[in-house]
Fold this sequence. Notes:
The structure holds 3 protein chains of 3 kinds. Chain A contains 4 helices and no strands.
Amino acid sequence: MIARQMKHRGDALWIAALVHRISGLALAIFLPFHFLALGLAIDGTARLDGFLRWTDQPLVKIAEGGLVLLLAAHLLGGLRILVIENFAWRDGQKQLATVAAAISLLVAVVFLARMF
Amino acid sequence: MNVRLYVWQRATAAVMAPLVLGHIAVIFYATRQGLSAADILSRTRGSIVWAAYYGIFVAAASIHASIGIRNILSEWSPLNERRAGLIAIVFGLLLAALGARAVAAVVLS
Amino acid sequence: MTDTHEELAVSLWRGSEDGRYQAYTVPRRESQTVLDVVTFVQRHLDPTLSYRFACRVGVCGSCAMTVNGKPRWTCRTHVEKVAGGGRLEIGPLENLPVIKDLTTDMEQFFRKWQQAKGVFAPSQTRHDAIAQIRPDTPARAAADAAIECINCGVCYAACDTVRWNPGYVGPAALTRAWTLVNDERDAGNTARLQAVAADGGCHSCHSHQSCQQLCPQTLNPTAAIAGLKRRTAAAYLKGEIEA
C-alpha cells in the first residue's frame, strides 16, 4: 500500500462493516466454548452448577456483557446488510448505523446493570 | 463467495434474526436473579420446543459461521480458496457437533 | 490570477511499487486544482515526473490519483478543499500496479469489466426497427442512474474488498453489468448473471460503501451490486444459473 493514510476507513458505514465482521469472528470463536459449557449438563446438574458458580465472578460477568454487546452489534449489522440487499436504497444510513451502535451498547449496559 | 454460498449465508441470517432476539430475551430472563443448573434444566429437560428452537439455531449458526469464517480466511489470511473452504467446513462441522451435543445435554435426561 | 504568496508542501510518489515520496514546494494560486499542482512540478521542477491527464475538466476519467488518502479526480479537486495546513500527499491509485510515479496499469480494471460481461449483447440487427425505449420504466431508470461511469478507477481504488480479494471484479464492472441487466434490448443476461454470480462476482461485496461515498459521478455501485445480488439469487433459485 502506497498511500500513508486511508481516509475512507474512518467512515461510519465502513466501521459498521468492520464491527460486523469482527463481532462475527469473536462470536464464532466463543461458540464452541459456549456449547462445551452447556454440554456439562450431560454429567448431571452438579458439574454445570460448578461452572455457573465460576461465572458469578465480576470479571466473567463483564465478559458476558461484552458477549451480549457483540451479539446485538452483529445482529443489527446483519440487518443493515439484509435491508441494503433486499429493499430499495435508503439514504440516512450513517444515522441508522449510529443508532444501531447505540442500541447495542444500551442492551449490553442494561445486561450489566442487572448483574451488579 | 458465489451465489450458492451467498444464498445459504443470507437465508441462515434471516432465520436467525428472530432466534437471536428470542435468545437475548432468554438470557435476560435467565439471569434475572442468579442462575443455577437446576433452574435451566428443569425448563429444558424433555422440551420439544426447546429442542426445536435451539436445534434450528445450532444448524443455522453452524452454516452461517462457517461461510463467514471462509470469507475472513480467504480475504485476510494467505490461505488459498480451497484451504480456506476446507478449514471453514471443518469448523462448521465442529460447531454442529458441539451444538447438537449441547442441545442434547440440556434436553435429554 | 492573483498570487497569494503562499506555498504548498507537496509529497509526490516517485518510482514504482518500491519507490518513495519526494518533497516539492509549489506556489499556491487561486482556484488551483491538484492537477495544476502536479503539472507545475512536471513543467518547472522535475520533468521526469510521470502522470496522466487529458480533458482537465472532469469528463474523461484519466487523472484520478490518491490525494491525502482518498482517490479523487485531481482536475476537479481544489487545493483549498483538501490541503489542510498547506500539505498535499499525492500518490498513484491504490489496488493497481504502479507503472511509474503517479501512473497505474489499468489492465486488470478493464479485464474485470469484460469478465463481468459489462458488454452489450445485441438482440437485433441494423435491419430491424429501432427499439423504442421508454425512459420512465423502472428498469430504464435503474440503468440510467448507473450509466454515467467514465472508468476513472476511483471506486476500484477505494474498495477494500478489491484490496483483500484479488479475484473480485470490483464496483465499476458490476455497475456496468447492472445497467445491461436492466437494458431490455440486451440478449446476454443469462450469461451475464452467471458471470457475476461466480467467485469474485457481486457476492464478494460487503457493502462498505466506499465506492458510493467517493464516486465523483455520484453513482451508487453498492445499490447496483445489491440489485445484482437479488437478480442472481432469484435466477439461481429458479435454476436459470448455476453456482
